[in-house]
């Protein structure tokens, strides 16, 4: 799980307006941060298959959100993917 401070920082960087927490950009950024943390965890704990399954679920969610963003607004998709370095 992400710490509250880290999550607030990520939301603050990618939000569209003052009270935005659910836009696709914010969701993708938060998922990316969680995925990075899980990858680090799995490098240390190679036999943790339950967390590996959770990682695959998060990657699938992020992929669906990125596909949606690509369909609806290509410019925002490209900005987000370049800032997060994901495609």
TrEMBL record:
GO terms for molecular function: rRNA binding; structural constituent of ribosome. Keywords: Ribonucleoprotein, Ribosomal protein, RNA-binding, rRNA-binding. SMART domains: Ribosomal_S15. GO terms for biological process: translation. One of its GO terms (cellular component) is cytosolic small ribosomal subunit. Pfam families: Ribosomal_S15 (PF00312). NCBIfam families: S15_bact. HAMAP family: Ribosomal_uS15_B. Part of the 30S ribosomal subunit. Forms a bridge to the 50S subunit in the 70S ribosome, contacting the 23S rRNA. One of the primary rRNA binding proteins, it binds directly to 16S rRNA where it helps nucleate assembly of the platform of the 30S subunit by binding and bridging several RNA helices of the 16S rRNA. Belongs to the universal ribosomal protein uS15 family. This is Small ribosomal subunit protein uS15. It comes from candidate division WOR-1 bacterium RIFOXYC12_FULL_54_18.
